[in-house]
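F.,

This is the one I mentioned.
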């Protein structure tokens, strides 16, 4: 079995599991370490930025992530330097004029990154995937599965890694962690979960952690076909989005939350939705991606990841969409069909009868055009595949 010898890499156990260090704080520290010399004081658990001393929770974890490295100078003692990967990220975020949100709510930091430095995602994701922290998590998931109760995962991940060490010299994670005064288990792991959430590698809901196997398995190439939106595009979309939210609030006040028909009409006709649809038409032409129907009145820009769960970027991103005729949109929207993320082949739920399949022009040979199966879209399709299987039972 493959093991990773972290000692050889100069990494300590606490650096692969460390801390409640939110993604926002990691980014703030990259800026700090880029602009100043950050002192490294062993075991220093609180931030003392006046003296340029970072919180050990965060800095240890950043060493494990391959963002920081410890150096030593006679006059200041141990200090922290950005690694090459750390510098790549610093190059993207150094001009951000604000301090990133350090809360535990990932959607806030995601939005901040989208608005101020959308180019960060692919670079940061690549850095994450190259890190020993990621590689060990991946090995752990391959051995133990992808679904967990949140609390037990946090404790077990910590405990199991802690005691696994090499006897046969087939290498291992860590040797004597007990001597490094690594304390409490569970709260040493949340930063890892938050990073996974940030990159859409885990769904953290209802005290369950569902890691997305497809994400861990995917071949990673740096944003080859990634569409980037300009700051202006995103700001425009954000303004529209705010207007719509306001409009929906007004409608809710008027009709109650059950006035869904009126509300849906507003959302469907919104400019954000139009932007999304235009992006899809520009990509593929004005036709259903399944049956080729071309009448624009019958075509719907269908979100792969449901619009209600999307941030603005995902809402206008055509790679999160399929252009489908009304029937095929409904089938897709209700998880009665899905398209395999790796091949684009259709899967049809048992809930659709043979005769309905025929009437709807659905059969097993249908598959999405290869030219739209780019990396970003396959990632969204993987999410759809998971939900489809949840809704249709495991063996469907
Ligand atoms: Zn169609």
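My design for it:
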């Amino acid at each position: 079995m493959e093991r990773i010898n972290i000692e050889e890499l100069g990494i300590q156990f606490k650096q692969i599991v460390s801390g409640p260090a939110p993604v926002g704080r990691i980014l703030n520290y990259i800026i700090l370490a880029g602009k100043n010399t950050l002192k490294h004081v062993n075991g220093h658990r609180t931030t003392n930025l006046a003296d340029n001393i970072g919180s050990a929770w965060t800095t240890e974890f950043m060493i494990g992530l391959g963002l920081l490295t410890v150096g030593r100078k006679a006059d200041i003692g141990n200090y922290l330097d950005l690694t090459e990967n750390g510098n790549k990220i610093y190059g993207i975020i150094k001009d951000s004029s604000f301090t990133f949100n350090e809360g535990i709510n990932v959607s806030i930091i995601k939005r901040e990154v989208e608005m101020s430095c959308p180019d960060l995602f692919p670079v940061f994701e690549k850095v994450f995937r190259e890190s020993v922290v990621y590689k060990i998590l991946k090995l752990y998931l391959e051995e133990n599965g992808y679904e967990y109760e949140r609390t037990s995962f946090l404790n077990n991940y910590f405990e199991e890694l802690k005691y696994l060490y090499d006897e046969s010299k087939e290498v291992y994670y860590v040797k004597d962690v007990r001597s490094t005064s690594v304390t409490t288990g569970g709260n040493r792991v949340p930063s890892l979960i938050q990073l996974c959430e940030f990159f859409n590698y885990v769904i953290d809901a209802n005290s369950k952690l569902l890691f997305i196997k497809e994400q861990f398995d995917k071949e990673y190439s740096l944003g080859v076909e990634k569409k980037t939106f300009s700051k202006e595009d995103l700001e425009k979309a954000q303004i529209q989005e705010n207007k719509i939210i306001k409009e929906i609030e007004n409608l809710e006040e008027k009709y109650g939350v059950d006035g869904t028909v009126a509300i849906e009409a507003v959302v469907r006709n919104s400019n954000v939705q139009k932007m999304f649809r235009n992006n899809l038409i520009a990509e593929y032409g004005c036709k259903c991606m399944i049956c080729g129907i071309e009448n624009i009145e019958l075509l719907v820009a269908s979100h792969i990841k449901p619009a209600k769960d999307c941030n603005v970027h995902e809402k206008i991103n055509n790679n999160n969409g399929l252009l489908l005729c009304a029937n095929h949109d409904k089938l897709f929207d209700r998880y009665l069909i899905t398209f395999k993320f790796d091949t684009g082949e259709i899967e049809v739920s048992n809930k659709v009868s043979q005769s309905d399949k025929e009437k709807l022009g659905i059969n097993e040979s249908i598959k999405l055009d290869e030219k739209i199966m780019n990396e970003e879209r396959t990632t969204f399709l993987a999410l759809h595949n998971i939900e489809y299987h949840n809704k249709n039972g495991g063996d469907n």
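Confidence is low (pLDDT under 50) at residues 165-182, 221-226.

Talk soon.
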